[in-house]
Specification:
There is one protein chain. The relative contact order is 0.22. It is globular, with a radius of gyration of 17 Å. Helix 1 packs across helix 2. 17% of the residues lie in helices and 33% in strands. By secondary structure, it is α+β, with helices and mostly antiparallel strands. The protein contains three helices and eight strands. The structure holds 2-acetamido-2-deoxy-beta-D-glucopyranose (2 copies). One 2-acetamido-2-deoxy-beta-D-glucopyranose (NAG) binds next to loops. Keywords: Signal. This is Malate dehydrogenase.
């Protein structure tokens, strides 16, 4: 019942999305419509008194709700979980940026995501909650140096940039703060600069919900995936 109410709340937000833009293009065959709303009013709410994350003065190019998992492996030497990357679906929330729902969409989205069984994918969630615009995917690839992994935001396969092979952002982290609510469970807020791709020059991860691993693990623990949501601002 609780989950249903949250889904209803998010659906209401999503209905506003559908109602907002005049002349919304018809859904793509895959079920996802191209983004149509302005990002002019979309602003990051960054904590004061820090210099790690500095908002650009221009409007973002894209504002997305990321719905996915953070992956971890148990380090046998420290018995702590270490990050092995993440994978998330990126839903356009530009049509929410002038509505009250914008502030809480990551919280409602996380509650719905958490309540669903593992068999339901993030893409399925987008369809169920009526957030129709899948901009692309966030995941990790081998770093250009050949060592380690780098985060990528890839819009080449879905949405209005589908088929455009340069519509991606490969980033390197340049700023990192604990989430503004200062919880132990939410992943950090980040700033990243472009390393490759022409999708954007900067990406920010903010308004995170969940995604942190347990504080310790026992030797031989299996790899884990921890569900999370976050807002991603691309400039
Ligand atoms: C993260 O784990 C999911 C399964 O939960 C998997 O599909 C994905 O490929 C993993 N990604 C990385 C970068 O480890
Ligand atoms: C491809 O997408 C990039 C943004 O990622 C844009 O700068 C470029 O103009 C696009 N190219 C074409 C041919 O549409």
């Amino acid at each position: 019942m609780f989950a249903f109410q949250l889904l209803s709340a998010l659906s209401s937000a999503a209905l506003m999305v559908a109602a907002a833009p005049a002349g919304l293009a018809p859904p793509r065959p895959g079920g996802f419509a191209p983004s149509t709303c302005s990002t002019a009013a979309a602003k990051m709410d960054l904590p004061a008194g820090q210099t790690q994350l500095v908002s650009p003065t221009t409007a973002p190019l894209f504002v997305a709700l990321g719905v996915g998992v953070q992956n971890y492996t148990c380090s046998a030497s420290t018995l702590k979980y270490t990050s092995t990357g993440a994978v998330a679906s990126l839903f356009d929330i530009s049509c929410l940026d002038t509505t009250p729902a914008f502030a809480s969409v990551q919280t409602l989205g996380y509650a719905a995501w958490k309540a669903l069984p593992a068999s339901v994918t993030a893409d399925d969630l987008g369809a169920k909650i009526g957030a129709p615009v899948l901009l692309g995917y966030h995941y990790f690839v081998t770093s250009p140096s050949g060592t380690g992994i780098s985060p990528k935001w890839d819009f080449t396969s879905t949405g209005k940039l589908a088929g455009n092979s340069s519509a991606f952002f490969l980033g390197t982290k340049v700023g990192d703060i604990t989430d503004a609510a200062n919880t132990a469970v939410n992943v950090d807020w980040l700033a990243l600069n472009n390393v490759q791709g022409s999708l954007a020059s900067k990406v920010f991860r903010v308004d995170t919900v969940n995604g942190q691993p347990p504080t310790s693990c026992v030797a031989g623990s299996p790899d884990i995936s921890v569900k999370y949501t976050a807002k991603y601002f691309l400039y």
